[in-house]
Inverse folding.
């Protein structure tokens, strides 16, 4: 079966195959939905209207031609309270570093001036991987052999946050230029705080590369082991099966 599911409210369609649920189709379309139990039918959050009838997306088979409206409250990158940019001070050097805390629930991206040490701004948002479950185990189960999907979600969100916060700082400085003096190119290698100890470091420098292109001289990233695996696009099999040992470690530079 090659079905097509319609999302008129979002102006989108998504393909569905035999055995897919509406939640699969919504994920395939990249649309935001709360799915805290990752499709186990427990949390009741993935409510949709399917051809006018309310149901759980994860319990409803996708059938060709269905018209679906998402009822759960999630809407794209949810920016949380406390996000914003500080007033620019004359003490600032104009050189910027970024610190990122990748939490299972919340991600915080903070910019600091490396000369004065002052906070320049912060952006906090709900981790977009929650579409694949609220807890670490759900995320691991969805990335046992392939972490590309979840990795792509978090990296795109972090990249957007870096661009937004640095853009706001540039506007606040009134500089109208990207980049600061003395920028060290960090793209292409592992972000400094997540230098990986074994094997390759697949695509780890993408966020660092985005930061460098925005004039940021240093990026430090912290998170629990699963969040680091998913950020670095590392399969989670060793985290989800006994003896539950990480294949890779992360060390301070
Ligand atoms: S009830 Fe559907 S994702 Fe939780």
């Amino acid at each position: 079966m090659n079905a097509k599911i319609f999302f008129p409210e979002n102006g989108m369609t998504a393909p569905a195959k035999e055995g897919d649920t509406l939640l699969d189709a919504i994920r395939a379309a990249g649309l935001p939905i709360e799915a805290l139990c990752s499709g186990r039918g427990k949390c009741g959050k993935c409510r949709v209207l399917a051809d006018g009838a309310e149901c759980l997306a994860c319990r409803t088979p996708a059938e060709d031609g269905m018209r679906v409206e998402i009822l759960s409250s999630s809407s794209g990158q949810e920016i949380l309270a406390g996000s914003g940019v500080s007033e620019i001070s004359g003490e600032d050097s104009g050189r910027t570093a970024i610190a990122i805390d990748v939490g299972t629930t919340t991600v915080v991206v903070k910019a600091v001036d490396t000369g004065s040490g002052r906070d320049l701004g912060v952006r906090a948002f709900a981790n977009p991987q929650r579409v694949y479950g609220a807890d670490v185990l759900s995320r691991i189960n969805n990335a046992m052999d392939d972490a590309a999907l979840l990795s792509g979600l978090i990296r795109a969100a972090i990249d957007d946050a870096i661009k937004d916060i640095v853009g706001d700082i540039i506007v606040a400085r009134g500089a109208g230029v990207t980049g600061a003096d003395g920028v060290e190119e960090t793209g292409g290698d592992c972000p400094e705080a997540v230098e990986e100890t074994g094997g390759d470091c697949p695509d780890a420098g993408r966020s660092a590369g985005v930061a460098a292109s925005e004039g940021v001289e240093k990026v430090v990233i912290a998170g629990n082991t699963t969040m680091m695996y998913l950020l670095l696009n590392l399969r989670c099999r060793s985290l989800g099966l006994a003896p539950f040992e990480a294949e890779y470690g992360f060390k301070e530079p």
User: Anything to note?
Assistant: The helical segments are 22-29, 136-141, 148-173, 206-213, 225-231, 237-240.
